[in-house]
UniProtKB/TrEMBL annotation:
PANTHER family: TRANSCRIPTIONAL REGULATOR, GNTR FAMILY (PTHR43537), TRANSCRIPTIONAL REGULATORY PROTEIN (PTHR43537:SF50). GO terms for molecular function: DNA binding; DNA-binding transcription factor activity. It comes from the Bacteria. Residues 21-88 form the HTH gntR-type domain. Transmembrane segments: none annotated. This is DNA-binding GntR family transcriptional regulator. InterPro entries: GntR_C, TF_FadR/GntR_C, Tscrpt_reg_HTH_GntR, WH-like_DNA-bd_sf, WH_DNA-bd_sf. It comes from Martelella radicis. The keyword DNA-binding applies. Pfam families: FCD, GntR. Keywords: DNA-binding, Transcription, Transcription regulation.
Amino acid sequence: MADTGLSEDQQAHLQLSDGSASLHGNLVAQIRAILVDGELADGTRIPEGELCQRFNVSRTPLREALKVLAAEGFVVLRPNRGAIVAPLDPAEIPPLFEFKGALERLIGLTAAERASDTEIAELEQIHLALDAAAVKGDYKLYTRLNYMFHRNLAAASKNAILTQNYDVIQQRIWRYRFIVNEYEKRCRESFAEHERIIIALRARTPLDLAERLEFHNRRTAEAMSAALC
């Protein structure tokens, strides 16, 4: 992995995982990464045999992992015909981001008051790594760091139910994010929005942080819709 300026522990969490250290959780994360990176095209059949060999698992755990990914919207399960990569559907962007916007506001209201100084320092470190990735034009790394930033900020709310629901919606959105952040203009805009989020977090101003997160969410939704039209 490229030098990000992050600790080894932080770099280990850059993959889009579900936070589980189990074999099942790791398998889900590995297949999800393949789908997010576009290794398998939309609408193509999932090559179960190849994946079993690649990850050294039998078909039973593989199919259990595919069920999880189907629930997240990454694959479509077809009875007796196997699973396929779920096609990207621009029509689901508005409702996904409408729900996510409500979560972002709650994260802002709670994290501003509950985040520890250590958590804020870690978020600032990720923010600096985001800047480095944007400057290098490494948009895939930028997107993964962006995921880490928002996930850590949600965790700083100290509300487990909020964090769990936020993680679910983020997983649904993630394939779209890789498309949008590959545009340099949006990547730089996104970083500028993150800069304002960090300022509000440092100041511990709940309403300001909530509004900046909502604005960032709204602009990302607009960029995604435009990119997929």
